[in-house]
Amino acid sequence: LQQGWNYKSPVALLMDALVRASPPAVRFEMKTKTAADKFPEFRAWHAMLKPVFGIEPVEWEAPVEAQPKLL
Predict the structure, then answer these.
(1) What is the pLDDT of residues 5-34, one digit of tens each?
(2) The pTM is what?
C-alpha cells in the first residue's frame, strides 16, 4: 500500500476492532430501510480487511428471526 499500512498498523487494528464490535443491525442489508443502509461502511470494512491488510475478518452470521412465543 502506498501509505505503508500492514496488518500491524493502527489503521488495520482499528478497522478490525470496528468490524468485531459492529452491532448486528449494520451487518446485513434487509428488505426494508435499516441501520445497514444508513451505515454501509461496516460492510465495506469487513470486505476490505483480507485484501487490504491480510486480516481474516470474523464470520458474520445472518440474523435469525425469532419465532413468536406462545402465551
Answers:
(1) 888 999 999 999 999 999 998 998 877 888
(2) 0.77
Q: How far apart are CA 30 and CA 41, in angstroms?
A: 16
In angstroms, rounded to a whole number, what is the distance separating the alpha carbons of residues 7 and 38?
Answer: 28
Residue type at position 1: L
Single-letter amino acid code for the residue at 25: A
Q: Write 7-15 long-range contacts (CB < 8 A, 24+).
A: 7/53, 7/54, 7/55, 9/53, 12/49, 12/52, 12/53, 12/55, 15/45, 15/48, 15/49, 15/53
Radius of gyration over every alpha carbon of the chain, rounded to an integer in angstroms: 15
